[in-house]
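Hey, can you fold this one?
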Amino acid sequence: MSARPLAPAVLLVAAAIGGCGASGGTTAGDFKGEERAVAQVVEDLSDAGKKGDAQRMCDDLLAKPVVDRLTTVAARDKRTCADTLDDSLKDADSFALEVTAVKVTGTTAQATVRSDAGKKDRTDTLALVKEGRNWKLSEIR
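Sure. Predicted structure:
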């Protein structure tokens, strides 16, 4: 198996769930309705990361375009989406994310998350898209 640079999709997922320390944890229970459903996906990503469950991420938590990119990269080495993602999960130090805000607009959403990145908290905005009845991570802004 040859070494390949990490695809943007892998970096997206690793950045979304991997930090350098623990934050206050996710707060899906602080939201209602669709906003709660979005925050729950962030919590589920965090939980799947803690458990090293890359397969669940690929199957249930990542938007189809992200999975497609991961699958394309993985296919070069006869691997799966989960294999490629699993490598990144092993490099992450922490999977704690605190959802501080959620904005839903139709079938798209943004979740502002905070994680502890050493001496300074890191804040990212995760973009999610609704596929069928489920919200899934599509990018980091």
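The mean pLDDT is 80. Let me know if you want another pass with a different chain boundary.
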